[in-house]
Amino acid sequence: MNDVFDTDILKLLGTLYENDIFIWQEQGKLKYKSKEGKISKDILMQLKDMKLAIISFLQDCENNKFPMSPLQSAYLVGEANNCELGNTNAHYYIEYEISDIDVEKMQTVINELIFKHDVLRMIVLKEGENYILNNLPLYTLSTYQYIDCTSRKRVRNIWKNHVYKIENWPMFHFEVGKSDVRNDVLHISFDCLILDAWSAKKLIDELFQLYNGQKVDIPQFSFKEYMEKAAIYESKTEKKAEDYWKQELEKVSIPSIKTEIPIHEVTSPQFGRVEYIFTFEETKCLYERAKYYKLTPAATICTLFLKTLCEEYGNQSMTLDITLFNRLPLNAEVDKILGEFTNVGLVTFQKSDNICFLDEVIKIQRQFWKLVQYREYDGTKLLKNLAKGKVGKAVLPIVYTCMLDGCSCSEQPLFKEVYALSKTPQVMLDHHVRDDLGSLKLSFDYVTDLFREEDVEKILLAYVKRVKSAMTQIEWDCIVI
């Protein structure tokens, strides 16, 4: 029994499921039933050899599984192939370069993080709950010979589009390409069911800190404990939030976006990325202008994004799905743990003639303050409300994901980020806004079947032009941008 890992049991359970064999434990006894009425000798032998370990695993799973967050559940529903822009998972992929990666050292650090953060040992159960595995083998860091761009792109194409299966571990992947003539490359892939964008950034920061010999605090609080407390947490603003959103839902304007083919014809969404990076001086200039008018960069940039989309696609108004990173104050160490803490909210822009840019941003800023005020409200309820009578439809397929941190560049200069791509079910365009690498970076992750790259680049350039105009215009209260 001690030689059986949880991964061995998961593999066997997967085989049983594929063969329509149902298994459960009842008062310490292993029970199983085949749909066809018989079980192969090979499977029977495995059940016999692993009997005690399977019983222990099933008992622990029954006693210690815990609820998913509303957004985790929404991701699972959206992954279904009968949903528009479904048949894919919420996933993030990234590459870093550095000279001569110490593979053994990197593998040790990864295993240290797996031990430190329970969410890295988590699986998602078929019934829609989470479970933390207890008995795992050491994670083995994959490697390959990075000979040329072809070998690197082969690994990239495998993992940037990877779909992690539920009830399988791990829900992440690390791989190193070793080269004799250029920098080595570190590939990182993970399912967003286990990590939101802020947690992913924290994980990567801790990975590089440990690799560089620095210490990282180990939280006593866990993601499992957080989710259990969150399930019984009572928001003091629930009623006010419901009243606010009831009014706001009446103002929602579904984007009218021209696509190459109808959304429902996309059977397996593939994503591409275009991006633009401003200089530190440009970024500082924009932030100072926003601060002067007591506005946040997040609301300012969102306004410019919405204005660009409305102009390019001829919309008078438009509503965006806004990503919120919402950790409830359930423990003093809540900021130290990793997990999926995302919530969603809505922001609507209405074009008006002869209105100055400052007033446009103020309107969006007020909506952002409401997002903060009612951040505890389950935003997936808003999406469900909008989707009534539209089963499987991608109702609000444009997302604004903002991770501004005041240009506080992470202290990992040796590792250089060189490629990244996200994908999300039922999303045609996810706009990422970052400044953690020292300056403002705008990225569009888009469904390639719906948009030509040159068209997305055209929109990005128009957007960048607007942002630069805001940087150089001194008086926002008397201009139209």
UniProtKB/TrEMBL annotation:
The processes (GO biological process) annotated in the record are: amino acid activation for nonribosomal peptide biosynthetic process; lipid biosynthetic process; secondary metabolite biosynthetic process
Q: In this entry, which stretches build a coiled coil?
A: none
Q: Which UniProt keywords apply?
A: Ligase
Ligase among keywords: yes
Q: Where is the Condensation domain?
A: 64-473
Which terms in the GO cellular component ontology are assigned? Answer: cytoplasm
User: Pfam family example for this protein?
Assistant: TubC_N
Entry EC number(s): 6.3.2.-
Query: What class does this enzyme belong to in the EC scheme?
Result: ligase
Which GO molecular-function terms appear in the entry?
ligase activity; phosphopantetheine binding
Checking Gene3D superfamilies in the record gives: Chloramphenicol acetyltransferase-like domain, Non-ribosomal peptide synthase, adenylation domain, Nonribosomal peptide synthetase, condensation domain
InterPro entries membership: CAT-like_dom_sf (IPR023213), Condensation_dom (IPR001242), TubC_N (IPR041464), TubC_N_sf (IPR044894)
**What are the residue boundaries of the TubC N-terminal docking domain, all occurrences included?**
9-59
In terms of PANTHER family, this protein maps to: NONRIBOSOMAL PEPTIDE SYNTHETASE, PYOCHELIN SYNTHASE PCHF
What is this protein called in UniProt? Answer: Phenyloxazoline synthase MbtB
Organism, scientific name: Blautia obeum
- The primary gene name is mbtB_3
